[in-house]
Amino acid sequence: MTKLLQTAMDAVAVGSLYALIALGYTMVYGVLKFINFAHSDIFVLGAWSSFAMAAALGWTKAGATPPLLGGFAILLASMAFCAAAGIAIERFAYRPLRGAPRLNVLITAIGVSLLLQNVGQLPFVFGTQPQRMPQLLPDRVLASVAGVDLRLVDLIGAGTAVALMLGLEALVFRTKLGRAMRAVSWDVKTAALMGIPVDRVVAFTFGLGSALAAAAGLLYAMKYPGLNQPAHATWVLLGLKAFVAAVVGGIGNIRGAMLGGLLIGAVELFGAAYFSPHLRDLYVFTLLILVLLYRPAGLLGRAAVEKV
Amino acid sequence: MNGPLLSVRGLTVRYGAIEALHGIDLDVPEGRIVTLIGSNGAGKTTTLRTISGLLRASAGSVAFAGEEIGELAPHEIVKRGVVQAPEGRGIFPNMSVDENLALGAFTRSDSAGIAADRERSLALFPRLRERLSQSAGTLSGGEQQMLAIARALLARPRLLLLDEPSLGLAPQVVATIFRIVREINAAGTTILLVEQNARMALSVSHVGCVLEVGRIVLRDEASALAKSDSVRRAYLGGE
């Protein structure tokens, strides 16, 4: 019982973070029809820029206690910073390739990813040493159920992730801007004929996806404070699993990304807890293979006919 | 204002090595319906897409209300009042009819004016009113075409570009749509119409131009063109 409850809580916490990252993959795919492989590095940038800000404020010293809302201030600042980075990447790396074959854009995305990883390792940026993220969010044990501690920081983490997803859902399905995003995602040319400034909508989409990834980066570091260096394989794997979440849910589908994230989190953590923790990656990628075999468009995706 | 509302000069468009338009001249006077007829592949859609900014001309100019618009982005062209209902209707099938109409008014923020124009559009196409909350993909072909035109009207066009509104529709529906096209024009909107259905198009238009493989080969009053022997033979199926 204890194990079940603990695993379920972890699955929701980690799954909602996968979902936040998956949203960025899926939104960019929606508007530009390519996989932004640099997206997982924005997630890393979110975690590391939060750490850098906390360090600059002296909150990483032993015994330092950040102010109550300090964590939220850093969350917003790193979201804004990563949004700006995402918009800059789109402007200078991807926009010049609008209309180029998709393979070129894909290769560029891999290039941007390598660039971010390697710039991140420079000594005057984040360096190559692992760091320990301080606890920036208020934390205490709220309740104990069947031997499992319900911690405030976990609640805030999951709550923030869910609030961001609900906010995104409202933005996309209830606002004029969201309607424009959906129109661009359906057909860029027709969207332009509606008077929608396509470039601006694409830039906004990148900024939004990057901000969500930044939030995921900080929240992830709250749960797992050991911060590996920016090019470490663990980051790559996390990004890859979030991408799997987007594909499992149906790439291009926003609700699919949320569902896929939670599903991947559940499969990974329940598998690790009840079968073998060594095979956690295997569960995720097995799920991917099964979905691709039986529902290639993803759980909520529609079977798309490639437009020429 | 003197001179035509839309004035196209020497418009040349290429797709890679292939030249699709070989320098066409086209005038659309304010308040008129001008139709561009021609067979498949003559360059009709290319002409409209270039006017809307979706394609870039390799030479020539497009002037609207005296202003050169050939270098503007498509959304800037819409803002100036040149609005297109594209070939194949271009509706958003996964959105409701109402959302499609709202997208038509994307460039505007005068909610009272939008509401009035929405009413006017729905009065022209009463069938859309019954289907406002339905997803646009479930409409019949004729209803989708009506939606495409109604949506374009919500942008409050000064010049409405219509690309093959009769495509794939039953004769009865085509007649309805052309009747409405005329009403829209009578209410003050200038129209540039592109059609394969030459008979129908000439019957509602003031001026007709015949486009043949990237060149305008004939230009006259629509009624005169409809009587011309060569046009009858080539496009109207007459003997």
Could you explain the architecture of this structure?
The complex is a heterodimer of chains A (308) and B (239). Chain A has 308 residues and is mainly alpha-helical. Chain A has a single domain (2-294), classed as Orthogonal Bundle (ABC transporter involved in vitamin B12 uptake, BtuC). Chain A contains 11 helices and 4 strands; from the N terminus they run ααααβββααααβααα. Chain A has helices at 2-32, 39-56, 70-94, 102-120, 152-174, 176-186, 188-193, 198-223, 233-249, 254-274, 280-294; strands at 131-132, 141-145, 148-151, 226-227. In chain A, the strands form 2 sheets. Chain A has a two-stranded antiparallel sheet with strand order 1-4. In chain A, strands 2-3 form a two-stranded antiparallel sheet. In chain A, strand 2 (141-145) and strand 3 form a beta hairpin. Chain A starts with a helix and ends in a 14-residue tail after the last helix. The mean pLDDT of chain A is 91. By secondary structure, chain B is an alpha/beta fold. Helices cover 38% and strands 26% of the residues of chain B. Chain B has helices spanning 44-51, 74-79, 97-104, 111-124, 126-130, 141-153, 171-186, 198-204, 222-227, 229-235; strands spanning 6-15, 18-28, 33-37, 59-64, 67-68, 82-85, 159-163, 190-195, 207-212, 215-221. In chain B, helix 3 (97-104) packs parallel to helix 6 (141-153). The radius of gyration of chain B is 17 Å and the shape is globular. Chain A binds chain B through residues 176, 179-180, 182-183, 186-187, 189-190, 192-199, and chain B through 52-54, 73-75, 78-79, 83-84, 86, 90, 92-95, 99, 102-104, 106-107, 151, 155.
